[in-house]
From TrEMBL:
The keyword Iron-sulfur does not apply. This is Aldo/keto reductase. SUPFAM superfamilies: NAD(P)-linked oxidoreductase. Pfam families: Aldo_ket_red. Residues 37-295 form the NADP-dependent oxidoreductase domain. Keywords: Oxidoreductase, Signal. Substrate binds at residue 130. It comes from Microthyrium microscopicum. The record marks 99 as: Lowers pKa of active site Tyr. Residues 1-15 form the signal peptide. Gene3D superfamilies: NADP-dependent oxidoreductase domain.
Length: 321
């Protein structure tokens, strides 16, 4: 009996995802998992994107997230290189994530080469399949994953992962995978907690990374829902605990080991977001319960490219469009 219990526990522990890295690991640490908080760059443009990324690194950010779809990889890469210089650190101190766009599913190697050329970097730390479907409305996630598995050996990326997959698509990949996806990036915020999905990914050893962690702040998200940062529950908890609304919603995800990558091009916002751990320490169980009520009903803000192309995205998950 005792032995069985130990075995069961051991299996459970092994299957858990690796601990997240600190937001700012000590200089000279090449993180083996995502830093707990980083910078998103969708809608960061031009020289502003370069300045914002460089400033973030100076302020202690060590995770920068981009994608060829954001049309800013040249500027983001320049910001990474400038930030590294200004902060007096080296490339291995910063974790850079980018993603394979849907039109490149037949050639992830070529897609990654293009991304590296745009970024002006020798490698990325993490390369994700941005969406499970490729050209022609087909879900080609399994063969695409098998091509992705060849990439870590090229040293062009340290890790590979997935984004926007449904639970069934994650299963499809795990069935054939010789390399387990390191990370799954999905939309997560108090309007869309997806608790069961997050827990099952983490139990399978996959690190969960939230996009849109501040909810409907991005102009891309057209929704009549109250802005999450204006929500009365969030505002009242923020004022009771001496936090800002952004810190409350980021802390809520961080408390369940979900990595957050809020976009911020203003220095004040970057500083506010990176100070979230002090707020997380002040949230009570009662606060978290109140925040859980916000998702009734749920809201999902990312619909493109699914809605526009009539792809069946997010099957078996909270829809909440
Ligand atoms: C980016 O642009 C915004 C205004 O659009 C500005 O407030 C911000 O300071 C800029 N960021 C940096 C780091 O220069």
């Amino acid at each position: 009996m005792q032995l069985f219990l130990h075995l069961a526990l051991a299996t459970f522990v092994v299957a858990q995802s690796e601990p997240l890295a600190a937001i700012t690991p000590p200089k000279g640490t090449q993180a083996t998992n995502l830093p707990a908080l980083g910078l998103g760059t969708w809608y960061a443009k031009g020289s502003n994107a370069t300045a914002a990324v460089a400033q973030a690194i100076v302020d202690g950010y060590r995770l920068i997230d981009t994608s060829p779809f954001y049309n800013n990889q040249k500027e983001v890469g320049a910001g990474v290189r400038e930030g590294i210089k200004r902060a007096g650190i080296s490339r291995q101190d910063v974790w850079v994530t980018s993603k394979l766009w849907t039109t490149k599913h037949s050639d992830p190697n070529g897609g990654l080469k293009e991304t590296l050329a745009e970024l002006g970097l020798d490698y990325v730390d993490l390369w994700l399949i941005h969406w499970p479907m490729g050209p022609g409305n087909t879900f080609d996630h399994v063969p695409t994953w098998q091509k992705m598995e060849k990439l870590p050996a090229t040293k062009m990326t340290r890790y590979i992962g997935i984004s926007n997959f449904s639970p069934a698509q994650v299963k499809d990949v795990l069935k054939v995978a010789t390399i387990k996806p390191k990370v799954m990036q999905i939309e997560l915020h108090p309007y869309l907690p997806q608790e069961d999905f997050v827990a099952s990914l983490q139990k399978q050893g996959i690190t969960v990374n939230a996009y849109a962690p501040l909810g409907n702040t991005n102009p891309a998200y057209k929704s009549s829902a109250t802005k999450l940062l204006q929500h009365s529950t969030i505002r009242s908890i923020a004022s009771a605990r001496g936090c800002t609304p952004a810190q409350v919603v980021l802390a809520w995800n961080m408390k369940r080991s979900v990595v957050v990558i809020p976009k911020a091009v203003q220095i004040a916002h970057q500083k506010e977001n990176i100070a979230t751990p002090a707020c997380a320490a002040k949230l009570t169980a009662e606060d978290l319960e109140k925040i859980a009520q916000i998702s009734n009903p749920p809201h999902r803000f990312m619909s493109s490219p699914c809605a526009s192309n009539q792809f069946k995205c997010f099957e078996g998950t909270t829809k909440g469009f």
